[in-house]
Amino acid sequence: MSESEGAIAPKFDVIVVGAGPAGVAAATVCARAGLETIVFERGRKPGVKNVMGGVLYTRPTAEVFGEFWKDAPLERCVIEQNAWILTEDSAIKLGYRSRQFAEDIPNSFTVLRVRIDEYFAQQAEAAGALIINETKVDEVLQEDGRAAGVRTGRPEGEVYAPIVIIAEGVNCELTKALDMQSDLRLEDAASTVKEIIRLDREVIEDRFSLGPEEGATIEMYGASTQGMLGTAFLYTNQESISLGVGVLLADAVKDHTTPFDMLKQLKQHPVVAPLIAGGESGEYMSHLIPEGGYNRLPALFGHGVMVVGDAAQLVNGLHREGSNHAILSGKMAAETAIEAHEKGDFSAKTLHKYRQRLEKEAPTMNDLRKYRRATGFMERHPWMLSLYPQLAADSIADMMTVDPETKRTKQWNIVKDVIRRGWIPRMVWDAIDGGRSLI
Ligand SMILES: Cc1cc2nc3c(=O)[nH]c(=O)nc-3n(C[C@H](O)[C@H](O)[C@H](O)COP(=O)(O)OP(=O)(O)OC[C@H]3O[C@@H](n4cnc5c(N)ncnc54)[C@H](O)[C@@H]3O)c2cc1C
């Protein structure tokens, strides 16, 4: 039952803080196993405070929510994914389209958080979890060095459970207070802004060559973030387009620019503008994405406590994967909570199985470890998203222009230009360091 008023029992088996995908996944799995589970959500209802691009991946989501695609409020099944490199006035486009993405178990769907979070919360409630909205958890209570409950702003104040699962998202106030992680540095988070642009269903399907339930995604690099470390995205919904930009906070601060300014410019880009033409501006949202990855993982567990989803920095920014790791980490924390209840042992000795599960039963840790040098690489090679896109665009434009020059002369001119600018040593270093950092 979801409620914001009325007395709450003082004791539960599990307390979950935050009703995003991570918290609700944890609550659903715990409640299904018969554990008395309560979720506190500070928003008016799940999803209203949350932001995502957003592409939801089917298989990890189905591990908790079964065949959700049969009745969940999804936007479109993604059958086409694109990566565009933008310069000021052009785009180099790479894409992959296949109906395979929609067959059997579809690969992913575009979603709007306000609708999908509510659906997930309903599944948790159907399993028996109690979701209390409009209630911020102010503190994780500790007894004898272990988490024992939470203090909220509600009249009852304190609620107790031998296990607290923290799914508070990127702000991580509670984990900081527990000394499980330090302050987020500017290098560890991307500042993002997203706009929903309303367009008729037929217009979307016509512009993107889509069938009625089919969707497309476009990730944009280069001029979309003015060469800063980050990406822009455009995702098709049923009757709207989600358009957004995210850049590393450190870069945005250094350049005195905001993702909002970049979004404004992106909407005027000659390649993007026709896709959103005639659209009606809907909501604007902004949010941080944790980008610290493997190097900045907090303590994932302690005595009586586990940390899941964005609160645990479990985001693979390079592949825009966050919701999948949030759901899987919520599930694995819940499975560990169930085991702890069976053993009657809530100490870190039992809860460390949560981290083991993340290592062995999900791609999460392996993927984060693989990209642990990616941000450092981009910091060492800041020209990657400005110099190369322009060089590639100029070269392609030259090769495709039919004029009196032969193709061989054109190729040679490009090489001479690169040599004249002294870029060869830089390119060699980029390739070697890129190979070491990204492969
Ligand atoms: C612009 C943008 C685009 C993205 N695109 C994608 C994408 O396309 N695909 C993808 O997989 N991921 C994407 N992500 C990442 C994804 O949204 C997150 O990884 C995912 O939502 C994390 O889920 P979570 O449950 O850990 O945190 P959240 O979704 O942030 O949920 C945390 C919840 O906790 C609540 N809360 C916080 N503190 C308290 C408190 N003290 N007491 C009570 N409640 C509290 C919040 O209100 C919120 O409901 C994107 C993120 C952004 C910002």
Q: What low-confidence regions span 5 or more consecutive residues with pLDDT below 50? A: none
Instruction: Report strand order across the widest sheet.
Output: 1-8-3-2-12-19-18
How many strands, which pairing sense, and closed or not: the largest β-sheet? 7 strands, mixed
Cofactors, ions and other ligands in the entry: flavin-adenine dinucleotide
- Give the strand content: 15-25%
Compute the CA-based radius of gyration.
23 Å
**How many discrete structural domains?**
3
Distinct helical segment count = 15
Task: Give structural attributes.
439 residues; FAD/NAD(P)-binding domain; D-Amino Acid Oxidase, Chain A, domain 2; 3 domains; seven-stranded mixed beta sheet; globular; binds flavin-adenine dinucleotide
Topology:
Elements: E1 2-3, E2 14-17, H1 21-32, E3 37-40, E4 55-57, H2 58-65, E5 77-86, E6 91-97, E7 108-110, H3 113-127, E8 130-132, E9 137-143, E10 146-152, E11 158-160, E12 163-166, H4 173-177, E13 189-198, H5 201-207, E14 214-222, E15 230-236, E16 240-248, H6 249-254, H7 259-268, H8 273-276, E17 280-290, E18 301-302, E19 305-307, H9 323-343, H10 348-360, H11 364-370, H12 374-380, H13 387-400, H14 407-420, H15 424-438
Parallel strand pairs: 1-8, 2-3, 2-12, 3-8, 5-14, 12-19
Antiparallel strand pairs: 4-7, 5-6, 9-10, 10-11, 13-16, 13-17, 14-15, 15-16, 18-19
